[in-house]
Specification:
There is one protein chain. The chain is rod-shaped, with a radius of gyration of 58 Å. A four-stranded antiparallel beta sheet has the order 2-3-1-4. The protein is an alpha+beta fold. The protein has 16 helices and four strands.
């Protein structure tokens, strides 16, 4: 090692020593120096003298025998120790006595170490081994065997295969029905589910049986909250949002009851899912059904109006009646024209037959009056009768309203069918992934695991307590 390295090492050692120095350090150095018979002027001088002799002030145990030349000087009376110069000559320590004292010190150290080891083992026995043995004894001999039934299910919804957008991308993932799954999870862990399970399957009575140990047994006079606390402990419901799977774990004192409780809870969950679906479907169908019912009633009213008009006016179709009247008028007008031609031929004769002429004139007049009467019936309205034009307009308005109502009824029917299809797509149903099957061996208690866990816990508590006590003792002693 080079001088520079040696100097650097010494400097580092000196810095380390300075860092751990404090008032307690110097007081302890003064006590050790006094014990060794060293004449120290101050606490710092005592620490320097001990460090020059290679003595660890904090850890090494020293006596007057460790003082070296200074101790000999004190014993011989040359120093300024507590014995004084007048008694130094009377103190002589030979090698045999020194060796005997060393052996005595060594025996004392061995005795102290054995005592400390015995006390350590005794503390470990009382604070670690004994509590662990009690815990192991309970789990192996006293604890009641409990059986756990597991089940897995998912909540699915009927979706259109052609759905586009973000909804179509999430349709096959667990995010599509995460809200429904969370609702079902909350329901299965609620007081409502526990109360129904107790009413239908006797949940509280099962855990009040006397063969169950005291730590797992439910007292006969237990409150509802105590029973609910036990329910939350033995009924665990977990939801995996990435896969959309709900995991159910039910614990009971026998496998058949555990399976029965699990099946009952799954039935309750399925009923709640059906209720959620029914509510959604009802909300979607209510508006469309109301519109369709209104359109249907309006169409029936319009049809009844047309029928009433036809019965009141005494005609099935105003257009057919007008066409019939117009045919009669046209025929009569043609007869008038023919008779006028015949009258003209008679009047062309130098001496026409007056009788025939008068007869033709009377026929023409009667025919024209009839034509005028028919035309008046089609256009003129009196107090007693309505014109064909008014009747036709009234019927046409009613028939037009009927046609409009029929179109509206068809549109409402299409909307109703579309809403029904959409409601069917919103149907949710519970699909089982893992059906509940009763186990043939008890799941709890895990005897070895629980015993080892108890050992680790008690050992950790003991170590932390011991460290805390040691630190406090050192601080107090310093």
């Amino acid at each position: 090692m080079t001088p520079e390295d040696r100097e650097f090492t010494e400097r580092k050692k000196e810095e380390a020593r300075k860092k751990r120095r404090g008032p307690g350090y110097y007081r302890k150095a003064r006590r050790k120096a006094r014990k060794m018979g060293l004449a120290a002027e101050s606490d710092e001088h005592a620490a320097q003298m001990l460090e020059e002799r290679g003595i660890d002030i904090l850890n090494d145990d020293v006596s007057m025998l460790d003082g070296g030349d200074e101790g000999d000087k004190v014993l011989k009376g040359t120093g300024s120790g507590a014995l004084g110069q007048q008694d130094a000559a009377n103190i002589t320590i030979n090698d045999a006595e020194r060796l005997a004292e060393v052996h005595a010190i060594q025996r004392e150290l061995v005795r102290r170490r054995r005592l400390r080891l015995g006390l350590l083992l005794l503390r470990l026995f009382f604070f670690v081994a004994l509590p662990t043995s009690i815990v192991g004894y309970y789990y192996y001999t006293q604890a009641t065997d409990l059986y756990e039934t597991r089940a897995e299910f998912v909540i699915q919804k009927s979706e259109n295969g052609g759905t586009l957008g973000l909804g179509g991308l999430l349709a096959g993932t667990g995010f599509a029905n995460s809200a429904d799954s969370v609702v079902v999870q909350g329901y299965l862990t609620s007081r409502e589910a526990m109360e129904r399970l107790d009413a239908e399957e006797g949940y509280r009575a099962h855990f009040e049986q006397t063969f169950i140990d005291r730590l797992h047994r439910l007292p006969a006079d237990a409150s509802f909250e105590a029973a609910y606390k036990l329910y939350k402990k033995y009924v665990k419901v977990g939801f995996d949002p990435t896969e959309g799977v709900i995991r159910l774990e039910v614990v009971a004192a026998d496998p058949e009851t555990s399976q029965r409780f699990a099946e009952a809870l799954i039935k309750y969950a399925e009923e709640r899912v059906d209720a959620l679906s029914q509510r959604v479907r009802s909300d979607q169908m209510a508006g469309s059904q109301k519109v369709y019912d209104g359109a249907e009633q309006a169409m029936l009213d319009a049809q009844q109006k047309v029928l009433s008009l036809q019965q009141e006016r005494g005609m099935l179709s105003a257009e057919a009646e007008i066409a019939s009247q117009m045919n009669i008028v046209n025929a009569l007008e043609m007869q008038v024209e023919v008779k006028r031609m015949s009258l003209a031929e008679l009047l062309d004769n130098p001496q026409p037959n007056q009788v025939r002429v008068d007869a033709l004139l009377r026929e023409i007049k009667r025919t024209e009056e009839r034509v005028q009467e028919l035309r008046s019936q089609m256009t003129d309205t009196t107090d007693n009768t309505m014109s064909l034009a008014a009747i036709s307009a009234e019927l046409k308005i009613a028939e037009t309203n009927l046609g409009t109502r029929q179109v509206m009824l068809q549109e409402a029917l299409q909307q109703l069918e579309a809403a029904r299809i959409e409601a069917n797509r919103q149907v949710r149903y519970l699909s089982m992934g893992v059906i509940p099957i009763a186990p043939d061996v008890p799941t709890y208690p895990r005897k070895l695991e629980n015993t080892l866990l108890a050992f680790v816990v008690f050992m950790g508590i003991y170590i932390l307590t011991s460290l805390t006590v040691s630190i406090l003792r050192e601080q107090i002693s310093v």
